[in-house]
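F.,

This is the one I mentioned.
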């Protein structure tokens, strides 16, 4: 049995988002698998192109969130929301 080490419970999202880097490079589309108040699990086609910090934009109705990558597994990334 695995232990949930998250500080906040995750909610399924399964929505399209984008990783934004300002003027440094073009946005990268992503799929947001789930999210909580503290972070999210996302999937991208080119994980090697994703830097350790970026802004996640989930929908037009959600506030963009600054993120730091905390784990990488193939095309999926776990990110923590930062201030």
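My design for it:
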């Amino acid at each position: 049995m695995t232990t949930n080490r998250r500080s906040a419970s995750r909610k399924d999202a399964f929505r399209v988002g984008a990783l934004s880097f300002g003027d440094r490079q073009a946005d990268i589309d992503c799929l947001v698998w789930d999210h909580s108040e503290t972070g999210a699990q996302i999937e991208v086609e080119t994980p090697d192109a994703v830097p350790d910090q970026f802004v996640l934009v989930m929908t037009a109705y959600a506030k963009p969130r600054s993120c730091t990558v905390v784990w990488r597994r193939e095309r999926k990334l776990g990110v923590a929301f930062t201030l």
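The chain has one domain: 11-81.

Talk soon.
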